[in-house]
Amino acid sequence: MLEAPHTLTDLTDVSVPPAAAPPDTCATKQGHHPLQRRTSEILMSTSAGESEPFASLPSGVSYRIVTEGSGPSPNLDSTVKFDQIEWLDAFDSPNRGEDRGDEIRVSELSAEWEREAMTHMRVGEVRRIVLPPGMYFYDRPAFVELRLLAIVR
Question: Which domain of life does this protein belong to (predicted)?
């Protein structure tokens, strides 16, 4: 299932400094935000139907394929239709944002990690992604689920 450029995630790269901790939490005695432990647990976990740990793309983004796709993969010139769900604390938490049925040319996606993930996916695939601190809007990890619905053109 994993292609040659993918490697298992080194969990030492996923940490959140105490300064990034939200005001309603506190740093641990070791100086790291409790979210670091939760992120490590997520990256190492496998749940029902998920036999693979998270893997990494060259940019450092960690991902797990939740549902295999069977269609073609888009390229940078492709226009795709996709769903995206974002969390700042963990997958499946109630604090999330959703964009459903977005259509955009892959090369016009705003973030490099989005373009990289999208061109490595196949139509029908659902992928869960963990973004390292600083790669999203905040200096903490972020959690994203992408579902590639179609290549429109």
Answer: Eukaryota
Confidence of residue 42 (pLDDT cuts 50, 70, 90): low
| CA-based nearest residue to 20, from 111, 146, 142 | 142
Cα 5–chain centre separation:
17
CA distance 141 to 152: 31
5 versus 149: which is more confidently predicted?
149
Residues 6+ apart with CB under 8 A from 20: 33, 133, 138, 139, 140
pTM: 0.68
Q: Which residues of 83-97 are buried (b: 16+ CB within 10 A; e: fewer)?
A: eebbbbbebeeeeee
